[in-house]
């Protein structure tokens, strides 16, 4: 009975939804022409085998494929369009791959283990940063001798300029993997170090920020970890926590908005760099338990509800979570959200399992690349491969046998007989651009 009801309803919805599509989309030639344009673009693509003078890495923390899709639609809808057909800047990158995000000890990883993978080229355990899987979470003594260096260090050792830009604390696990080695991602300052770690000689992440690597540019939060405990902040003296903390909320609109921030930064970087000499990468460290479901009409608000009710005859939003604080059962029923504004930034999406805070997701994350050696990022690979491919493209670290053969030369204006390899006189900038509210 219910199946027949839903089938009829789905048929009616399909008839109604026709009115949502543009007239040109009803013409088969529209799609054939679009496909041919894409095909011609693919066929005309040539491999860029230049050495990357610059490498820019944009890292959207928790930016799974569902989040990318939702952000794309939201961007279009904010421009008064249907949304699904919107093309974001990252969508134009010619090479796409999938990175496997699991850690050595967990199927679903955190930002510390994943950052160690894509920055240091080594997979490790949950909650540790800049050390191999031989280290144990929270055990200072296991850290010694198991440190691993990042591409930021490799680039600096090669005489390049390096930088970190983040919207969270600079001691957070994501940027910390570029310079720190810690058996715990939470050892932000000396106040966070347990006595055993102090006895065993471990130092906090904040100290390592200024002592491990000479980083040219550091922009981000975390000033409270660089001052004595109880010391009033010079800019916000009455604020007990001036740091923009990520609180593991599952409010999806802000997540989409922070992805929008990443896309805003991305056009700026693309305008300031040359694709022939700059490798630009957009990826994520992990995803979240975030789903895009139901059968909404074309152009339905990405923050709205599915027009088809569930078996309990109550509506649900097209964006939901597998777990989190949105799990609410009242009188053996889900909340009735027919009169609830689910587009409000304060609305908390329903979730299948009750948790105080939503967890990460374990599926592969997308990586989009353009510029020198961007074709190296096609396919499905371990997340730890990313650091090595970036290093190969920029001729830093190992695997430099190809560098002399492909390096362009720069004439010395004072001596026309002198040819100097470009990479020896130009700088490489590695920027970790993070939009972080989640671990």
UniProtKB/TrEMBL annotation:
Taxonomic superkingdom: Eukaryota
Signal peptide: 1-21
SMART domains: alkPPc
GO molecular function, one term: alkaline phosphatase activity
Requisite cofactors: Zn(2+); Mg(2+)
Keyword annotations of the record: Glycoprotein, GPI-anchor, Hydrolase, Lipoprotein, Magnesium, Membrane, Metal-binding, Signal, Zinc
Cofactor, how bound (note): Binds 2 Zn(2+) ions. Binds 1 Mg(2+) ion.
Catalytic activity: a phosphate monoester + H2O = an alcohol + phosphate
Residues that hold Zn(2+) according to the record: 61, 285-286, 360
Active site feature: 111 (phosphoserine intermediate)
Subcellular location(s) per record: Cell membrane
The protein, known as: Alkaline phosphatase
């Amino acid at each position: 009975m219910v199946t027949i009801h839903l089938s009829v309803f789905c048929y009616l919805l399909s008839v109604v939804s026709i009115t949502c599509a543009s007239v040109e989309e009803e013409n088969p030639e529209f799609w054939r022409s679009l496909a041919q344009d894409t095909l011609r673009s693919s066929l005309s693509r040539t491999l860029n085998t230049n050495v990357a003078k610059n490498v820019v890495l944009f890292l959207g923390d928790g930016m799974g494929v569902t989040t990318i899709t939702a952000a794309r639609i939201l961007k279009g809808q904010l421009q008064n369009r249907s949304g699904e057909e919107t093309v974001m800047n990252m969508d134009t990158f010619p090479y796409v791959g999938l990175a496997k995000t699991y850690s050595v000890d967990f199927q679903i990883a955190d930002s510390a283990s994943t950052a160690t993978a894509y920055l240091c080229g080594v997979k490790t355990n949950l909650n540790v940063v800049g050390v191999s899987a031989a280290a144990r979470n929270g055990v200072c003594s296991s850290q010694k001798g198991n440190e691993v260096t990042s591409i930021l260090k490799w680039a600096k050792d090669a005489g390049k300029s390096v930088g970190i830009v983040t919207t969270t604390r600079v001691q957070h696990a994501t940027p910390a993997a570029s310079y720190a080695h810690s058996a715990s991602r939470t050892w932000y300052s000396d106040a966070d170090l347990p006595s055993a770690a102090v006895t065993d000689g471990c130092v906090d992440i904040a100290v390592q920020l200024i002592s491990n690597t000479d980083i040219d540019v550091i922009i981000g939060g975390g000033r409270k970890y660089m001052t004595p405990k109880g010391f009033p902040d010079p800019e916000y003296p009455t604020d007990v926590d001036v740091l923009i903390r990520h609180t593991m909320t599952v409010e999806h609109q802000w997540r989409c908005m922070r992805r929008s921030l990443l896309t805003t930064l991305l056009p700026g970087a693309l305008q300031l760099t040359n694709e022939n000499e700059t490798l630009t990468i957009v990826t994520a460290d992990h995803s979240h338990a975030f789903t895009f479901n139901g059968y909404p009409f074309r152009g339905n608000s990405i923050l709205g509800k599915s027009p088809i009710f569930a078996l309990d005859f109550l509506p649900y939003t097209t964006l939901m979570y597998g777990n989190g604080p949105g799990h609410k059962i009242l009188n053996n029923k889900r909340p009735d959200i027919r009169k609830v504004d689910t587009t409000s930034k304060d609305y908390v999406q329903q979730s299948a399992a009750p948790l105080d805070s939503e967890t990460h997701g374990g599926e592969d994350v997308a990586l989009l690349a353009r510029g020198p050696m961007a074709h190296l990022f096609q396919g499905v690979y371990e997340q730890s491969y990313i650091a090595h491919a970036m290093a190969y493209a920029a001729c830093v670290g190992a695997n430099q046998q190809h560098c002399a053969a492909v390096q362009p030369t720069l004439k010395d204006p004072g001596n026309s007989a002198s040819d100097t390899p470009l990479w020896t006189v130009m700088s490489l900038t590695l920027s970790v651009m993070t939009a972080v509210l989640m671990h």
